[in-house]
Design a protein that fits this description.
alpha/beta; eight-stranded mixed sheet; five-stranded antiparallel sheet; 14 helices; binds S-adenosyl-L-homocysteine
């Protein structure tokens, strides 16, 4: 099978020189999500809402409580960023309909999704009309409750390497036989980036900056500061000190549940990087809103009643479904699985009391 994106990239790099890594990652992920439905056991990875309906239900209840704490704005946008198959939103809406009819009446569903193909899947999954947008910047200004699960980790990162007296930036160039390989180019560092790239550093030091995730968090925070609302960001990540996977980057390329070389088959593997929650919190504060958390996903879900909801589902489950439900619940909450490395962070107006799951311990 020929890889059209790889062919296009090679032509372009041959003509124009190496392409900055973040640009490559943006193109590779757009092609990846644009050409498939990668979720589930037969796909490339299983996300929390695909593992257990209790996940989306708990997040729906979170949104309903947040809506009450915000003074019951009507209308109120209920936004999901990167909704995948739309499973989380469908589960959330069902729970909201039962627990908070007032919120169910006031909410308007808006989705941020780049992939036309996944928009189609979402349209089929959702029980109500929705409005789609290409990015968070395109959302209309209105009070809104925003949810994102495993969205920020798919956004492009910039990567740097210290060489001599300067930082160089990782790009994608052409190697032997026209293969795509990593190449170093002059770092184009703006005033914001300079903070994360110290003037002094050891030879060979590396830095990875999730510029796009920070920008997205800043846009959400600015909306919340201006029009009111709250956001819930759930993702795998770290609080400022990344756990490096290899070569000073947290980047992982996944295809069919296996780790693969990120440059080998662009558009055929999901590229993701750990979310830097400390960086997000800084962007949120700079935009005039408050960050709550992050707290580990296991603790967050337990506080929201995830285990009690799972018990209720187990009572009415068929024996054949029981083992799967239990395994999924363990996976999302257990510290050795997704319970610790996945975290939840909220964005709220300054002065709003702790949102559900973010109470001080
Ligand atoms: N939240 C879902 C899917 C996570 S995968 C779940 O938990 O199952 C990432 C999602 O974000 C996909 O829907 C993908 O198409 C979307 N996405 C990735 N990069 C994007 C971008 N730059 N702009 C808009 N959507 C993007």
């Amino acid at each position: 099978m020929t890889n059209e994106l790889a062919a296009w990239l090679k032509e372009r790099i041959a003509a124009e020189g190496p392409m900055r890594f973040d640009r490559f990652m943006a193109l590779a992920n757009a092609a990846y999500y644009g050409s498939r439905d990668p979720f589930g056991k037969r796909g490339d990875f299983v996300t929390a809402p695909e593992a257990s309906q209790a996940f989306g239900e708990c997040l729906g209840l979170w949104a309903a409580v947040a809506w009450t704490m915000l003074g019951r704005p009507d209308p109120c946008l209920l936004v999901e960023l990167g909704p995948g198959r739309g499973t989380l939103m469908a589960d959330a809406l069902r729970a909201i309909g039962q627990a908070s009819p007032g919120f169910a009446r006031a909410l308007r569903v808006h989705l941020v999704e780049q992939s036309e193909r996944l928009r189609e899947v979402q349209r089929e999954t959702l029980p109500c009309p929705a409005t789609w947008h290409d990015g968070p910047h395109a959302l209309p200004q209105a009070p809104s409750i925003l949810i994102a699960n495993e969205f920020l980790d798919a956004l492009p990162v910039r990567r740097f390497l210290r060489s001599g007296q300067a930082w160089r930036e990782v790009a994608v160039g052409l190697g032997d036989g026209g293969r795509l390989v990593e190449a170093l180019v002059e770092a184009s560092v703006g005033p914001g980036d300079a903070l994360a790239l110290p003037a002094r550093a050891e030879e060979g030091a590396t830095r990875e900056i999730g510029c796009a995730a920070r920008e997205a968090a800043g846009i959400l925070a600015e909306r919340i500061a201006r029009s009111g609302g709250a956001a819930l960001l759930v993702d795998y990540g770290h609080g400022g000190v990344p756990v490096e996977v290899a070569d000073g980057t947290t980047l992982t390329a996944l295809a069919r549940h296996r780790v693969v070389d990120p440059l080998a088959e662009p558009g055929e593997a999901d590229l993701s990087a750990q979310v830097d929650f400390a960086g997000l919190a800084e962007a949120v504060r700079q935009a005039g809103a408050a960050a709550q958390g992050p707290v580990p996903q296991g603790m967050f879900l337990t506080r929201l009643g995830f285990l009690a909801r799972t018990q209720a589902l187990l009572r009415s489950a068929k024996p054949s479904q029981r083992a799967e439900l239990e395994a999924a619940a363990r996976r999302l909450v257990a510290p050795s699985s997704m319970g610790l490395v996945y975290r939840a962070m909220a964005i709220a107006p300054v002065g709003l009391p702790a949102l559900p799951g973010f109470e001080a311990t």
